[in-house]
């Protein structure tokens, strides 16, 4: 496990979820997205100890377990560590049963809970809620950005080294090529957040699920690729709803025709994203519904 320098005092640690680290002048640290609980947090703690670095702060970019799950392990070792997140993320981080219920649309079950590794997570408390704007901690300034879209509570963090951590607002190019049906909560906000990145003064950007960090110039390409992916599936939904159709049948067509790989968890993630796409088109005034023979059917309006 390596602590990779990006610029100045800003580093990151590669993993299934990349973890950011900012090193303060007093050799204490802030980490961004500690990742899942398990062996990796213990390796990070060992690495910090070897460098005499004390962890003082954790910022979670959003409320998915693969980003915040290890908070409890760090809290057990660093008793005074302060854990921060947005208000919306706090709700899900502190109530671990909410996310599987949201995905299932009702009570969850062992199939989903096992896939989400909910049983491995211990209770976590958020010490400080943060909002968009300047965040002052340990005599340093960070800028927080509201990046709603992937989740209601997604945020970005910009360090004074002009390194921007965006969580899952973007995914790495390799991942996007394989899994372009993105897991999104709010399509309108996601599009706005993607555009927002372009106006931020940064030099390097760290994506949580990517093999490398990228420059601002490189970010334009991947932002546009994300936007094209969203538009691709918006147009597919429009096409599949050119006559009354069920959500399940539209989802089947999307999975089959795009050759999407899926399991139990992924099926429900895809369904959640599809409902978000349909809701987006409903809010644009493009879609209507009918109730027929015990079914809810959506369809695109004639223009």
Structure characterization notes:
The chain has 303 residues and is α/β, with parallel strands linked by helices. The chain is built from eleven helices and 15 strands. It has helices spanning 39-50, 65-68, 71-77, 87-94, 98-104, 110-115, 173-178, 187-197, 216-240, 247-257, 264-283; strands spanning 4-7, 10-13, 19-23, 28-32, 54-59, 82-85, 128-129, 133-137, 140-146, 155-158, 163-165, 204-206, 214-215, 287-292, 295-300. Strands 1-2-3-4-5-6-7 form a seven-stranded mixed beta sheet. Helix 8 packs antiparallel against helix 9, helix 9 (216-240) crosses helix 11 and helix 10 packs across helix 11 (264-283). The longest helix is centred in the C-terminal third of the chain and has 25 residues, at 216-240. The protein is globular. The model has no long low-confidence stretch (mean pLDDT 95).
Draw up the topology in text.
Layout: E1 4-7, E2 10-13, E3 19-23, E4 28-32, H1 39-50, E5 54-59, H2 65-68, H3 71-77, E6 82-85, H4 87-94, H5 98-104, H6 110-115, E7 128-129, E8 133-137, E9 140-146, E10 155-158, E11 163-165, H7 173-178, H8 187-197, E12 204-206, E13 214-215, H9 216-240, H10 247-257, H11 264-283, E14 287-292, E15 295-300
Parallel strand pairs: 4-5, 5-6, 6-7, 11-12
Antiparallel strand pairs: 1-2, 2-3, 3-4, 8-9, 9-10, 10-11, 12-13, 14-15
Helix pairs in contact: 8-9, 9-11, 10-11
How big a fraction of the residues is strand? 15-25%
Please state the overall shape, judged from the principal axes of the Cα atoms: globular
DSSP summary: helix tally:
11
Strand order of the largest sheet: 1-2-3-4-5-6-7
